[in-house]
Each structure stands twice: as C-alpha cells, then as structure tokens.
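Predict the holo structure. Ligand: oxalic acid.
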Amino acid sequence: MAIAILCGKDKLDHEAHAWLATSLKSELLTLDSNLDIQIWPEITDQNQIECALVWRYRLGELNKFPHLKGIFSLGAGVDYLFTDPQLPKNIPITRIVDPTMARDITQYVVTAILNYICRNDHWRICQQQKKWGKQPPFNFADKTVGIMGLGFLGSRLADALTHLQINTIGWSKTPKQIENVKCYASENEFKTFLNNTDILVCLLPHTQETENIINNELIAELRDQAYIINVARGALLVEEDLIAALNRGKLSGASLDVFRLEPLDTKHIFWSHAKIRVTPHIAAVTNPVTIAHQVLENYRRLLQGKPLLNQVDVQRGY
Ligand code: NDP
Ligand code: OXD
C-alpha cells in the first residue's frame, strides 16, 4: 500500500516541481509517519501504488500502476489529466480546494485591478521619462469587474471585491447568489454580463465548452477600453484576437498569468507588448503545508471506501 507523487511532464519540469513533491511528502509524513510515499521516477514497486498525487505528470505513467484506486490532482484545475490518452478509467479523481489558494488568487487579481484602475503603468513610464504626466482623476465607481466562473475561487474573489467597494458582477453555468454581486448564468445571460463588464477576470476551468471562449466575439461585447485578466488557463484565450483588440484600442490592456504553452516562448509577442503584463503562472501556487490535511483525509477515505472530498465530475471536466 503506497502513495506515488508524480510532478512534471519531463525531466526539467520534474526538477522545477521537486520542491512540491518533497515538501508534500515531508508534510504528509509529519501527519502520519507510517505512510509509504514514493516520488516519481523513483517508484520501487508499481504494484504497491494505490493512490497517485499528481501535477502535470508525464502522460501514460498512471497506467503503470495496476492497483491504482485514486488520482488526487495537486492543483485546482484538472484539465491536464484529460489530455492523457491512457488515463485509467473509472478511478475517482479529486482536486485541491484550498482557502489559501483563494486568498492568493484574490490578492493577485486585486493587484492587477488596482494597477489598471490606478494607471500604475502610466506613472511608471512617466517616472522613467521624468515627466509630470498628470491625468484626470481615476474613479473606481466608473468600472465594473466581471468574473467568469463563480466556483470556489471566483466566488471568494467576488466577495472580496465587494468588500473593497469595487462594483462586481459574475457569470457561471448554473445560477449563484453572492451578496452585493449581480450573478448571471448560462449562455442566455452571457451577452448582458459582458455588456456590463469593464474588467474581465477569467476563472473558468478549461473544458471543451470554455476553450477559446475569450475571442473576438466575446471582446466585441465588452465595454470599450476593457481590461482582461486571465488567471484560468491559456487555452481559453485566442491570442491573435487579444492582440488585435489591444492594437485597435478596443481593449486597454491585459494581465496574463497562464498560457497555451508554458513556459511562454521567449519569442512570444506577449513578453514585449506594451499593454500586456505577464506573470509565470504564479497567481496561486499549491501550498504543500495547507493541502496536506485534505490529501491525507482523502487517502484515508479512499482506503476505507468512503466518499472522497472535492471529487471531479469527469463528464463535466471540472
Ligand atoms: P470551480 O470548479 O470551483 O469553479 C468553476 C466555475 O466555472 C463554476 O462556477 C462553474 O459554473 C463555471 N463554469 C464551468 N464551465 C462553465 C461554462 N461552460 N459556462 C459558464 N460557467 C462555467 O473551479 P475553481 O474556482 O477552483 O478554479 C477555477 C480555475 O482556476 C481552475 O480550473 C484553474 O484552471 C484555475 N486556477 C489557476 C491558478 C493560477 O495560479 N493561475 C490557480 C488555481 C486555479 P457552475 O458553478 O455553475 O458549475
Ligand atoms: C491550479 C493551478 O490549477 O495552479 O491549481 O493553476
């Protein structure tokens, strides 16, 4: 009976995520010193592995564990699992639902919103040019933040924004109720949601339905001079449509934390575009200390045949 931790799709990526695997192993052993935890690729006996803790692992590896009973994603998003053609079938998949992650996403998005509304990029350029570039006062009341995806992260972000007295609306698949937030739902209300949005925050999962959702059609429905913050997945954004909208002035800027191909290619236009801020997928990084309890709880439930926490709906894809 053993747990395998598989992080990283290749050797380089594995090394980059070594901290996650080793810290999580050590946290879990602190909680229960009897656990047998093996970090890929040093798996001593594949027959022993009953539970796999994974983050963007090398596709096909999970199929090598004949007695696998559970797959626990170490991230909130599970889209990468569904790209594995050999993903073992009929095995429950869970994901991370962690208030610390919600706090981190909130802080990242609030920073991006404030940078935009307070025109921090403009002041920075003025300072570099030693220019007293005074402009008319900015006004928070003029801007509405629209959050696509009101799940665990999106709903907490919405709540935090209302406490900062930032006008906030949201959109999700099924109807939601969040105090002081006008919530829209389904395709029927999508256009109205977009028509009322100045700052679009994307916190949708990557599924067949959401892929390429931020495209020309969507951008056309946003208010003029809108700003886009994508912290969901790169595949949700049609890159050429974003660039074209920034260049013709329909959009005034974008903060991007996630990309179709990560790491972002050094030649990619996003790096040097004056209206784009790039961060390397750090909006909310899995915290081994805060997730260890839920991982262990789910492992115990798995062994006892009890329902798991935070189980992914494989049909929906999130
Ligand atoms: P949840 O599953 O809790 O929430 C997803 C939300 O998206 C739900 O409100 C859901 O609606 C909505 N949704 C899904 N599909 C559609 C659709 N077709 N149309 C409208 N709404 C839809 O996910 P989390 O909040 O935990 O995480 C969201 C995403 O954030 C993750 O999947 C991941 O990709 C990304 N992420 C990024 C991080 C980063 O560092 N950049 C860190 C962590 C997560 P409904 O509630 O009605 O089902
Ligand atoms: C996640 C992420 O999904 O880090 O947890 O993107």
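The pocket of NDP (ligand 1) is lined by residues 76-77, 101, 105, 149-154, 172-174, 203-207, 209-210, 231-233, 257-258, 281, 283-284, 318 (CB under 6 Å). Residues 99-278 form a domain with the Rossmann fold fold (CATH 3.40.50.720).
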